[in-house]
């Protein structure tokens, strides 16, 4: 760094160890030397001149020395106090750095030293305000952050004369990650600011609102008049958020879920526990669907703890060889022959036994493990199907489910192609099942991916058909071979007229589009006969056989000509 020319003397003096750490010592040294220049000059003159006697010279020098020392002492004394503004300013800065204590420096002086003190005091006050803002407020929305929320809530309750009940509501925007992916970064920020403004307009004067994370807002409802007032506030918040937002001319629809906990406030640490309980309740609300609110309960907490345990144990289960594939037959309803098998993953836990897919599949979907598990199931099922063919068993389709996360992967088509090559299975004997709900997320991407998969020569089945909300409008765009009627309709087809009507409509739709159709969840003779009469082609369910390991399915395939009612899985 280039040294400022005005700092040359200061830099030179700083090289001396006795002067290095004291600015006052530097000033005093220069002052001392400066006041002794006349004395040294006089001494030099007397030494070099022969005009005076030694007695006279010594007398004059003593007088000059005393005068110089007196003047020097007075000068140093005055300088010491004139340096006070600089010393006070330096001490104030050091005190603020170590204790965050704001200085009380005078501001009424107009010279350079006075300006230094006044400007330093003003700058530190502004800096302290900025640090307070950054430390306690969210930069995006201007709302308090988590720390300030907890502090204010605790102070509010601790100052109250009576022990109050407080409700902590945690509001989370549903699928904000997906929403933000479809928006520009600035529009996402504007959306969050608009959400913050709407929430501010909903709460009371004594309530506390904070922005905890990107998509989560916390509200402390202090004045609880009744349990119903908390419900009314939750309903107001949800309805307010569900109204359309207009951001830069674009209309955006969002929903939110709310987790609620109500309790007394103990110490400051207990505020954190309330937020944790609200988080648990929010998770439960999101599990129930969009625009829901749920209250915290210990039972919910216990279920979440169990979920965390399963999630930890699920990691590495594939590498430890704990995953197995079971197969369930798909039956031609006219000939009663096995036409296909659906591959279903199971978790053979070393202590829990066979873990239900309903327990671990949603967890694997959430944490991304479903991608590796799904690819393993695909490879295992294709290899098993090829092994049956090589053993002389009549070739049939192998149906494998694709998860939403698998379908989103850009290399899905390449993975499927590679698996078919590795297992030497012809594509015509592989069927991939996709669910209409995740196809609707990005129609253009879905159509493109499905077309690429169809070009490989394999089958595409639309699973759980009838449970979605828009696929009838896009069905002719999806290049699928088969519709699978969801089990919720099949199970009630003989007892519920609405389920029967939906089932009839799906079968008629499939026929008009020349698609094959499979009914899931067939469990009774009555259901089977109803589906046969309506012209449904395939059936799947416990009536024909439960999912079973490969060795048991091998026996079924070898005796595929037997009547299926005698099959024992």
Total helices: the number is 23
Report how far the terminal alpha carbons are from each other.
Answer: 83 Å
Instruction: State the share of residues found in helices, binned by percent.
Output: 40-55%
CATH top-level class of the largest domain: Alpha Beta
Q: Note the overall shape.
A: elongated
| Second CATH tier, the architecture of the largest domain | Alpha-Beta Barrel
Alpha-beta classification: alpha/beta
Which topology of the largest domain does CATH recognise?
A: TIM Barrel
Number of domains: 3
What is the typical, i.e. mean, pLDDT? 81
The rounded Rg comes to 41 Å
Helix-strand blueprint:
Blueprint: H1 8-13, H2 23-35, H3 37-48, H4 54-82, H5 84-99, H6 112-136, H7 146-158, E1 165-173, H8 176-181, H9 185-202, E2 208-213, E3 216-221, H10 227-242, E4 245-247, E5 250-252, E6 256-264, H11 268-287, E7 293-295, H12 298-314, E8 323-332, E9 338-349, E10 353-355, H13 357-367, H14 369-390, E11 397-401, H15 404-408, H16 412-423, E12 430-435, H17 436-439, H18 443-455, E13 459-465, H19 471-474, E14 482-485, H20 487-490, H21 497-512, E15 516-520, H22 525-534, E16 538-540, H23 550-558
Parallel strand pairs: 6-7, 9-11, 11-12, 12-13, 13-14, 14-15, 15-16
Antiparallel strand pairs: 1-3, 1-6, 2-3, 4-5, 8-9, 8-16, 9-10
């Amino acid at each position: 760094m280039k040294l400022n020319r005005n700092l040359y003397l200061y830099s030179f003096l700083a090289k001396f160890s006795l002067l290095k750490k004291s600015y006052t010592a530097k000033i005093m040294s220069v002052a001392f030397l400066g006041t002794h220049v006349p004395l040294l000059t006089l001494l030099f003159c007397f030494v070099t001149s022969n005009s005076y006697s030694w007695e006279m010279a010594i007398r004059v020098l003593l007088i000059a020395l005393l005068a110089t020392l007196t003047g020097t002492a007075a000068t140093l004394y005055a300088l010491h106090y004139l340096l006070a503004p600089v010393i006070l300013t330096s001490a104030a800065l050091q005190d603020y750095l170590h204790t965050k204590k704001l200085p009380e420096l005078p501001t009424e002086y107009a010279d350079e030293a006075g300006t230094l003190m006044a400007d330093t005091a003003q700058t530190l006050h502004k800096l302290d305000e900025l640090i307070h803002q950054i430390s306690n407020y969210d930069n995006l929305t201007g709302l308090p952050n988590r720390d300030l929320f907890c502090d204010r809530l605790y102070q509010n309750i601790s100052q109250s004369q009576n022990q109050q009940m407080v409700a902590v509501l945690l509001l989370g925007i549903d699928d904000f990650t997906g929403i933000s992916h479809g928006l520009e970064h600035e529009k996402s920020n504007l959306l969050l600011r608009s959400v913050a403004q709407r929430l501010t307009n909903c709460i009371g004067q004594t309530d506390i609102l904070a922005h905890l994370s990107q998509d989560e807002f916390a509200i402390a409802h202090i004045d609880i008049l009744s349990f119903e007032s908390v419900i009314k506030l939750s309903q107001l918040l949800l309805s307010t958020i569900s109204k359309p937002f207009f951001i830069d001319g674009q209309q955006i629809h969002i929903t939110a879920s709310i987790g609620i906990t109500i309790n007394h406030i103990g110490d400051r640490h207990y505020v954190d526990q309330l937020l944790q309980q609200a988080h648990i309740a929010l998770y439960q609300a999101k599990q129930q669907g969009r625009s829901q609110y749920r209250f915290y309960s210990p039972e919910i907490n216990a279920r979440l703890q169990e979920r965390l345990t399963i999630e930890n144990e699920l990691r590495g289960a594939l590498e430890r060889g704990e995953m197995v594939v079971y197969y369930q037959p798909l039956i031609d309803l006219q000939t009663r022959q096995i036409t296909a098998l659906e591959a279903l993953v199971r978790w053979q836990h070393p202590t829990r036994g066979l873990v239900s897919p309903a327990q671990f599949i949603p967890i694997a979907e959430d944490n991304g493990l479903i991608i590796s598990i799904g690819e393993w199931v695909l490879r295992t099922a294709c290899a098993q199907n090829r092994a049956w063919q090589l053993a002389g068993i009549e070739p049939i389709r192998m149906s494998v489910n694709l998860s939403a996360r698998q379908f989103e992967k850009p290399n899905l088509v390449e993975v499927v192609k590679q698996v078919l090559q590795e297992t030497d299975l012809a594509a015509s004997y592989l069927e991939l099942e996709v669910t209409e709900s995740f196809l609707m997320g990005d129609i253009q991407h879905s159509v493109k991916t499905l077309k690429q998969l169809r070009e490989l020569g394999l089958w595409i089945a639309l699973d759980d058909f009838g449970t979605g909300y828009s696929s009838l409008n896009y069905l002719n765009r999806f290049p699928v071979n088969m519709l699978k009627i969801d089990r919720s309709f099949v199970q009630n087809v003989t007892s519920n007229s609405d389920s029967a009507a939906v089932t009839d409509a799906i079968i008629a739709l499939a026929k008009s589009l020349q698609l094959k159709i499979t009914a899931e969840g067939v469990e009774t003779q009555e259901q089977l006969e109803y589906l046969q009469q309506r012209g449904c082609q395939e059936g799947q369910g416990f009536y024909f056989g439960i999912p079973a390991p490969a060795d048991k399915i091998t026996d079924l395939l070898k005796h595929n000509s037997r009547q299926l009612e005698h099959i024992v899985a």
